[in-house]
Amino acid sequence: MENIAQIQAMTALAVGLVFGMGALGTAIGFGILGGRFLEGIARQPELAPLLLGRMFIVAALVDAVAFIGIGFALFFTFANPFVTPELAAAAGG
């Protein structure tokens, strides 16, 4: 049972890293995206509607990466595949 607690602790640390790095990457991506969007609008104001539509598409893709990371983190939190072999070994199998 000591191994199970250690696996769960390491999984919790890994999930924290996934959440943190996903949030950090998304924040950096949105910062760069917003800055470039404003640069494009300042250079050619007549392209504002076109740039706005493309910005929203790229924003959705940047956000999707974070959501995929969150999905993996929740999978490892609630359906940890690393605990099952330890439970089988503890049961005598």
What features would you describe in this structure?
1% of the residues are buried. By secondary structure, this protein is mainly alpha-helical. It has one domain (2-80): Up-down Bundle (F1FO ATP Synthase), CATH 1.20.20.10. 87% of the residues lie in helices and 0% in strands. The longest helix is centred in the first third of the chain and has 42 residues, at 2-43.
Secondary-structure blueprint of this entry?
Blueprint: H1 2-43, H2 48-78, H3 83-90
Helix pairs in contact: 1-2
Produce a short descriptive summary.
The protein is an all-alpha fold.
Please give a handful of descriptors for the protein shown.
mainly alpha; F1FO ATP Synthase; 3 helices
**Average of the residue pLDDT scores:** 89
Helix content: over 70%
The run of helices and strands is HHH
| CATH H-level homologous superfamily name | F1F0 ATP synthase subunit C
Q: Percent of residues in beta strands?
A: under 5%
Q: What's the structural domain tally?
A: 1
Radius of gyration: 21 Å
CATH T-level fold name: F1FO ATP Synthase
Number of strands: 0
Gross CATH architecture: Up-down Bundle
Largest sheet, in brief, is: none
Report the total helices: 3
What is the terminal-to-terminal distance?
Answer: 15 Å
In terms of per-residue confidence, which ranges show pLDDT below 50 for 5 or more consecutive residues? none
Output the structural class.
mainly alpha
Assign the CATH class: Mainly Alpha
Shape, please? rod-shaped
